[in-house]
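User: Before I run my own analysis I want an independent prediction to cross-check against. Here's the chain; please return only the structure tokens and, at the end, one sentence I can use as a sanity check.
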Amino acid sequence: MNALVVYYSEFGNTRQVAEAIAEVFQGAGEARTLSINQLTTADLQDVDLVVMGTPTHKMKLPEAVQPVLEGLPRRILQGIPVAAFDTSYEMGAFLARFTAAKRIDRTLCRLGGKRLTAPQTFRVHKFHEGPLLDGEIERARDWAETILVQLDGREG
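Assistant: Structure tokens:
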């Protein structure tokens, strides 16, 4: 397996989650993390899995992320399994519908990716600069294990 975990992080929380996910994936093959600021179309070639995460800013994607995603060629992820996550503080039920992970998920699918699992949110203390709540790194590792099981089920 060749997995790519792409992230955008301002305060380090989303990067920590991405690194924890990639660490789990390394047990099943090659996995690397890459800041979305460095992402090129070549990075998305010959990958078996793409996981992407950003913080939720004002109930949407951070402004720096949107132009990168819009610049990717149509269908570049054709048939590639994908998953999305974000980091966010605890929101009420109404606001929780507006997470970056859900927007990333829709974008990855529009690029041709095949959703493996529902988007996931990892919590930070009130206000997005964090830090991550206790147990969130472990939860990220568990989520990565779930992704591997789902990926194996699709390949088997």
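Sanity check: Strands lie at 2-7, 30-35, 49-55, 81-88, 114-115, 120-123.
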